[in-house]
Design a protein that fits this description.
The structure holds 2 protein chains of 2 kinds. Chain A is an alpha/beta fold. Chain A has 10 helices and 10 strands. Chain A has a domain at about 1-80 and about 200-235: Rossmann fold. A 6-stranded mixed beta sheet of chain A has the order 6-7-8-3-9-10, with helices on both faces. The longest helix of chain A has 16 residues, at about 170-185. In chain B, a hairpin with a 5-residue loop joins strand 1 (about 130-135) and strand 2. The model of chain B has no long low-confidence stretch (mean pLDDT about 90). By secondary structure, chain B is mainly alpha-helical. Chain B has 11 helices and 2 strands; from the N terminus they run ααααββααααααα. A two-stranded antiparallel ribbon of chain B has the order 1-2. Chain B is globular, with a radius of gyration of 19 Å. The chains are: A alpha/beta, B mainly alpha. The interface of A and B includes residues 93, 104, 106 and 150 of A.
């Protein structure tokens, strides 16, 4: 099996008194594409934020590339080759499009610099047209391209996308999915959180389903796709 | 008013305003980016002036004193941030005010114990210890012009640092979304320590530059602290350009207030502040 990039064991996270994560195990390996699914409030975002050190875990461990990073500060976890595109995008509206990209630039863990400013411009020609605009002046779709572009500027081995298509027009959504597929094809492992389980299972090899802070399914995406009963039970509205 | 006198007052107003700007930058950045009200900021100005006095007596030259004093102030800023201020980010304003007020007392006491409570003077460096003749009877001290020029150069340098450099981009990003900056792999703690130390260094530099102009005396940090807060409030919290404009407004209000209405001069600055806040309650420049 290839190298594990990000791994969590028996994670328990609380927000105040509410027990959000109840012993979650999580692994993603090099080059893999993983769909993380579940209804609202089941702990998907909390799981991501806990693993990245943005929320403290009460119990459990996190390791990145086989090294224990439990309790490590976020920037150190991220610097081991992870890029995070959060829900709500996290654009800096007071920085220009160019600045949003340039401020994040950094070589990858092995020193490679495949993703340059020019390559991001080729990937998102629309950003190139708006390069001098403030981040806050962009449309939702353009902001999403900007956060993905910004994530790539860090030359990651693992890209985590939390609700990357939320609230976007169908045409833009299709464009974002195409880009996600292209990025994964370059060998970057990808964790995708999205409401559209058909799209997620089509893009990913493996799927995980969270229900009330527990993993109820961890297996092949094809299995989820072909099991309407499973989808209905855990993901249906 | 005769033109030469007017010109001299304009130069004085500029010099005072620019020096105030140097002090106020640290206050507005630390308040705007880290959310900390630092009452001890005026003490850095006072410590700078005393450092200029001590180091000038040791080295015999103000410029040598400044060259030594700036790195000292920077290291002092980093140490203070790491030891004390980094614990204040998540605390409320009352606790910040209590700690930083306590620091004022500590700094004043340390100064009293080490250098004493006497008023001192620092000689103007020989290179600039001359006056420029403006008319038959009027002249202007060259050193004051030097101070203004140094401040202008620093303001331009700050513009490039904050608006053009990657460090500046990170600082501006951090003022908007601390978590996202960390999630891009940037060490926000180091970033904050650097911002804090830059603020301390500039306030100390202002004190060092002002030492030959105003003499060095106990409590010189208090008055500058209050007027710096006025600058921060008028300019808009967190805005460097706001601080520059506000500091110049205060410089002119104070200088011309003293010339035109001497008996009301103490009020001029606060009248200006009241008027600006009626017009723009958030300050001239919003945070950006």
């Amino acid at each position: 099996m290839s190298e594990s990039l990000l791994e969590a064991r028996r994670l328990h996270t609380y927000y105040g008194l509410s027990h959000i994560l109840r012993g979650v195990d999580f692994t993603i390996r090099k080059g893999e594409a993983l769909g993380l699914m579940g209804r609202n409030g089941m702990g998907k975002t909390t799981l991501l934020r806990t693993m990245l050190g943005l929320v403290a875990a009460r119990e459990g461990s996190v390791s990145v590339r086989g090294q224990d990073m439990t309790g490590a500060p976020t920037h150190r976890i991220i610097r081991r080759g992870i890029a995070y595109v959060p829900e709500g995008r996290g654009i800096f509206p007071n920085l220009s499009v160019r600045e949003n990209l340039v401020m994040a630039a950094r070589p990858g863990v092995d020193g490679r610099c495949e993703w340059t400013f020019e390559r991001i411009m080729e990937l998102f020609p629309r950003l190139a047209e708006r390069i001098g605009h403030g981040g806050g002046q962009l449309s939702g779709g353009e902001q999403q391209m900007l956060t993905i572009g910004r994530a790539l500027m860090t030359n990651p081995d693992l890209l985590i996308l939390d609700e990357a298509t939320e609230g976007l027009a169908p045409l833009i959504v299709r464009e974002i999915w195409r880009v996600i597929r292209d990025i994964h094809a370059t060998g970057i492992a990808t964790v995708i959180v999205d409401k559209n389980h058909a799209a997620v299972t089509a893009v990913t090899d493996r799927s995980m389903i969270l229900v009330k802070g527990r993993v109820v399914f961890d297996g092949s995406s094809a299995e989820v796709r072909n099991d309407p009963e499973l989808i209905q039970r855990h993901l249906g509205v | 008013m005769d033109f030469t006198i007017f010109l001299i007052q304009v130069l004085n107003a500029l010099q005072y305003g620019l020096l105030l700007f140097l002090v106020a930058i640290g206050l507005t950045l630390v308040f705007g980016i880290m959310g900390i009200i630092n009452l001890a900021h005026g003490s850095f100005y006072m410590l700078g002036a005393y450092a200029a006095f001590v180091l000038t007596s040791l080295t015999g030259n103000l410029f040598a004193a400044i060259a030594l004093g700036i790195p000292l102030a920077f290291v002092f800023g980093v140490v203070l941030e790491k030891l004390l201020f980094s614990h204040l980010y998540k605390r409320d304003h009352l606790e910040q005010v209590l700690l930083t007020y306590g620091l004022i007392l500590i700094f004043e006491e340390l100064r009293s114990l080490t250098v004493g409570d006497d008023v001192h003077g620092v000689p103007i460096p020989e290179l600039f210890a001359f006056s420029i003749q403006l008319s038959d009877v009027m002249s202007y001290p060259a050193y004051r012009l030097v101070v203004s020029v140094v401040c202008i150069v620093l303001a331009i340098g700050l513009y490039f640092l904050i608006q053009r450099s990657r460090l500046g981009m990170m600082i501006r990003a951090g003022s908007h979304d601390r978590d996202m900056v960390q999630a891009l792999g940037i060490n926000i703690k180091t970033l904050y320590a650097v911002v804090f130390a830059i603020g301390v260094s500039l306030a100390a530099l202002a004190g060092m530059l002002a030492a030959p102009l105003s003499s060095v005396y106990p409590g010189m940090g208090f008055s500058v602290l209050i007027i710096s807060f006025v600058v921060v409030v008028i300019g808009g919290v967190g805005s460097v350009w706001g601080a520059l404009v506000a500091a110049l407004i205060i410089g002119f209000a104070d200088t011309f207030g003293k010339v035109l209405v001497p008996e009301w001069a103490g009020l001029a600055v606060y009248l200006v502040m009241a008027m600006v806040l009626l017009w723009r309650p958030e300050g001239i420049f919003r945070k950006g």
